[in-house]
Here is the input.
Amino acid sequence: MTRRCLLLLLALGACRKNVLAAALEERLAAAGITATVHCDKTRCTATDDTGKKFTLDATVTDGRLVDWRPRAATIVDTRQLSRDISAQRRGWAAVGCERDTMVVLADESITCVLFDRAPRLLAVTATGDPAHPLRWGKPR
Here is the structure.
């Protein structure tokens, strides 16, 4: 009887991890990121479709995913980035990046093209600071 209970508890724990990973994969997909997620309690590791690995922190209440966020990474919506840069420049500007949405690790930069008067390269760097997650400027 004890062995049966132990097996049942192990099975339930494995199901919970799979449910959490599946919920996080759905949330990432809704944000535009295709990724595979593996969890250990509420600390999860994701690998996106480019092979980039990043950590996700999840808040679970009563067995349900309540909140999640990438740790030391930023999910960049390049369409929103284009709107932000255009507003900052007080005029028309557009940004073109390799993908519409991507994961950028802290202190990592991606190179996009800024279309303004003339197209030029733009380096977008994730800062790791939730208050100011991105900075951009000329590539180095």
Observations:
- The beta strands are 35-40, 43-48, 53-61, 64-71, 73-77, 94-96, 101-105, 109-115, 120-126, 134-137.
- Residues 2-71 form one domain.
- Residues 2-30 form the longest helix (29 residues).
- The mean pLDDT is 84.
